[in-house]
Amino acid sequence: MESLxxxxxxxxxxxxxxxxxxxxxxxxxxxxxxxxxxxxxxxxDREPHTATVFPDEVRDLQIATANEWRDVARPMPYGLHEGExxxxxxxxxxxxxxxxxxxxxFYTETDGTGACTVHExxxxxxxxxxxxxxxxxxxxxxxxxxxxEGLVRAHECxxxxxxxxxxxxxxxxxxxxxxxxxxxxxxxxxxxxYSAVAPEPGEVVxxxxxxxxxxxxxxxR
Length: 221
Prior knowledge:
four-stranded mixed β-sheet; 12 strands; globular; alpha+beta
């Protein structure tokens, strides 16, 4: 298995035009169905929406919305366990905040057509869905790939297979490369800055590239 540093070098060397070729070959057009912005499963067993967001993206959304950290992001639930008063433990990512239904807090829907209330400031994971790059240390959004072309993977989405313009494919490809680089940079920084903590019962600690934090985004001790 290659080191994260080696994978980062590969990500930085990705050719945007080749990624665009792959995206163009697969095809994509957003239908605004909202599937990638909402929770999944039946109402009595619904899994909340989870979309990874970087610390600086949280701050950008804070500025754009004039909201507190907690209103924008929540600790990624993976790695946490249920304590007497709720989730507790340590996790290593932030996810976009969700509403009571488990949908992204920035998602809105009118007559079955979805929209993002922070579209111009949306995180890279949202800009690049349903695509990912098959490099070690990068994340695969929402399940296994349903199509692939070179290093590009496409994940379940009703917009796949539709015509996409070259300009849109190149814009998406540039964002996809940026996301792959950022994910690896974040993973390396988390690894290098990680220091084990012992959360008290009922406490949640998030380890990101800036150190250990509380759920409100402040530094942990």
